[in-house]
Amino acid sequence: MSSKRSSLPSLYLVGILLSAGACNSTGPASSDYEISGTVRDKGTATPIAGATVYVLAPGLYTSTTVTQQITGADGKYDIKFNARCPGSGRYYVLPSKWPTYVDNTAGKSFDCLSGSAVIDFDLTATP
Description:
Structural class: alpha/beta
Shape: globular
């Protein structure tokens, strides 16, 4: 009888793990997103051509680049991508034009539920 009692908690644990896995596998595999905007010089309001705009998925210890795009001559970008929403429910969008504009605090977050957003950036030139 003691062997039946000791296996009972194990069966409950297996059931819980299987149901948790089933919940995760029934959600959408991925969604379409669109993030657009303009990258400008903060001091002059001039569009910054050739800046790279990164879309990052934050992780527990590091962020993963989901996609990136270089701004046009008008400083505009329009990123369309299909991905699974990260566990945080947000993407992080970060512009950079190294070495002229290096501002790691310029990033902004993007809520996965919204599906699309217009995010403009004003970067300060490095001294």
